[in-house]
Design brief:
Helices cover 37% and strands 32% of the residues. A seven-stranded mixed β-sheet has the order 2-3-4-1-5-7-6. The radius of gyration is 21 Å and the shape is elongated. The protein is α/β, with parallel strands linked by helices and 161 residues long. Helix 1 runs antiparallel to helix 3.
């Protein structure tokens, strides 16, 4: 399998697994080493920036009053409305989601972080001691994203641009 057809993790695993073969064929070893170095460079240079979405998870008992505060009191424009979720225009192409949830006794704020390289961002976060916590909430099928929590426990959705 060519390195172009593999994802980053497979390339690195293949490099470890074929160490003996690489030593036997120096020309192939050089090409493969260059691929691995390119992956490492991309991971070192992964950028992360604020996303477009802020999600506020609000207890069911406070949902209607919270939505009324943003809609009637502050005058925010409603972009979409469902039974358990209202999305407001937060300016500059950003959105504030107010989601009704059962369970928590207080509101939580969830943030989005956008990255140019999801695998590189995950590796960079892992090196900093921040690990995925995908049990937070199921993501739509095929969505290129994962969940993390910052050291204070604030949930962030990391998405690929």
């Amino acid at each position: 399998m060519s390195s172009a057809a593999m994802d980053d993790w497979e390339v690195l695993a293949e490099a470890e697994r074929r160490d003996a073969e690489l030593n036997a064929n120096p020309s192939f070893a050089l090409d493969f080493d260059e691929t691995i170095e390119a992956i490492r460079d991309r991971r070192r240079n992964a950028t992360m920036q604020p996303g477009r979405n802020i999600a506020m998870k609000v207890p069911a008992a406070d949902f209607a009053a919270t939505v009324a505060f943003y809609e009637a009191t502050l005058g925010f424009r409603v972009v979409s409305r469902e039974a358990s979720s209202v999305r407001f225009d937060y300016g500059g192409g950003h959105f504030l989601w107010i989601d009704r949830v059962e369970g928590p006794a207080k509101a939580e704020v969830w943030l989005e972080i956008r990255t140019t390289d999801l695998q590189a961002a995950e590796e960079k976060l892992k090196e900093a001691g921040i690990h995925r916590c995908d049990e937070v909430e199921a993501l739509p099928e095929g969505m290129k994203a994962f969940w993390i929590k910052n050291p204070a426990g604030v949930v962030h959705l990391v998405t690929e641009e």
